[in-house]
UniProtKB/TrEMBL annotation:
Single GO MF annotation: phosphatase activity
Top-level taxon of the source organism: Bacteria
Name of the featured protein: Uncharacterized protein DUF89
Keywords, comma-separated and alphabetical: Hydrolase, Manganese, Metal-binding
Cofactor(s) named in the record: Mn(2+)
């Protein structure tokens, strides 16, 4: 089978171009308004947006602490037009450059100040979270299949709560109840002998709250002996969870982090690369688990490759073999999807032109 080409930023009519040309201007406005930034910081944000819409990719400053990482991850992109860059590469670099524009890594008053913090805090302050998570109190400690289905679906549809995504897509579109692929039974079978579970988190707030509910349930029922929760080392894609976002989510849920949950991070989680490029130490870490749960749309893109896949491509032909069973829990928020049958694709294409990107549809897809 021929591997399809990578999705590129500038291809007319494709989603990646919408993200850069429609979502990013709104995003930059929101970031500029989020904190009392200096004139220089606001100018740097504006210059980054202009550069990304029409220009060539400029390097990080010479004092960037992660210069060596980005030299290794460059893949020949710096210096080329943004429009020609792979979507996956360019988005990660765009978020890294936002951190540069707001002096996130520079010693001084803005060092370590999360540019997305006010947006994240607003989400956690939403009173509807109380009723939306009310069902958690009724979860039992028995290995009940209905409870498993509930916690898995909550983790899937929690992935709609992605602030960068909601900058572009209308919030009103109700999710479907349907999972386009539902490998919940496979997930259960993967834990027929309990073992350690690795959960690669995506967004903080509502999504990581649902992930913690899933983790707690797996621990409470004894299906998981321990859980490793991988989060981002720095602010990324607006709402991606960092360690402090996990603390905030635990507080919002009113349940402290279980002693059997270890929160970990790795520089690779903010790298512009797919899972095929996982560094050896992280690959070994993941392989030490009985099951890996990869949350969210970006991790899905990284798992199967951010390519122009025919949606009927078998999962195993596309997804990277991590040497351990993997289940991806995501809502469809980008053009990348594999493992569907032709009838489902035809039905969705006819009914909803934006089904791949609208976030209405979810999947729990195993490799
Ligand atoms: O990984 P997540 O948070 O589920 O989604 C990331 C996302 O918002 O970013 C990409 C475009 O910016 C899309 O693939 C997707 O909609």
């Amino acid at each position: 089978m021929l591997t399809p080409p990578e999705l590129l930023v500038g291809t007319p009519g494709r989603y990646a171009r919408e993200v850069f040309h429609q979502r990013h201007p709104t995003l930059i406005d929101r970031v500029a308004a989020a904190h009392p930034y200096t004139t220089a910081q606001r100018a740097a944000l504006g210059a980054l947006l202009d550069e990304s819409l029409t220009g060539e990719i400029r390097p990080l400053p010479g004092d960037a602490p992660d210069l060596a990482d980005w030299a290794a991850w460059d893949r020949g992109q710096v210096g080329r037009p943004w429009a020609d860059a792979p979507f996956l590469w360019a988005e990660s670099y765009f978020y890294r450059r936002i951190l540069d524009a707001v002096d996130y890594f520079r010693p001084g008053p803005w060092h370590g100040v999360d540019p997305f913090r006010p947006m994240k805090d607003a989400e956690l302050a939403d009173p509807s979270l109380d009723s939306d998570f009310g069902w958690v109190a009724s979860l039992g400690r028995e290995r009940d299949e209905a409870d498993l289905a509930t916690v898995v679906r909550a983790a899937v549809f929690g992935n709609r709560a992605d602030i960068s995504f909601r900058l572009q897509e209308p919030a009103g579109d109700a999710p479907t109840d349907e999972l386009l692929v539902d490998d919940t039974a496979w997930l259960r079978a993967a834990l027929s002998e309990p073992g350690p579970v690795c959960l690669i988190a995506d967004n903080g707030g509502r999504e990581v709250m649902a992930d913690l509910v899933l983790a707690n349930w797996l621990l409470d029922t004894g299906l998981a002996t321990r859980v490793t929760l991988h989060v981002k080392p720095a602010p990324y894609y607006v709402s991606d969870a960092t360690a402090s976002d996990v603390d905030a989510a635990c507080a919002r849920l009113g349940r402290p982090l279980d002693a059997r949950v270890a929160v970990r991070t790795h520089s690779f989680w903010c790298a512009p690369l797919a899972f095929g490029d996982l560094p050896a130490d992280l690959r070994a870490d993941l392989a030490g688990h009985r099951l890996v749960v990869a949350k969210g749309d970006l991790n899905y893109r990284r798992l199967v490759g951010d390519r122009d896949w025919d949606p009927t491509t078998p999962v195993r032909a596309a997804a990277t073999d991590l040497g351990v069973p993997v289940v991806a829990l995501r809502t469809c928020k980008s053009e990348v999807v594999v493992g569907l049958d032709a009838a489902t694709v035809a039905r969705l294409d006819a009914a909803e032109p934006r089904w791949r990107v609208s976030g209405r549809h979810g999947m729990a897809q195993a490799r």
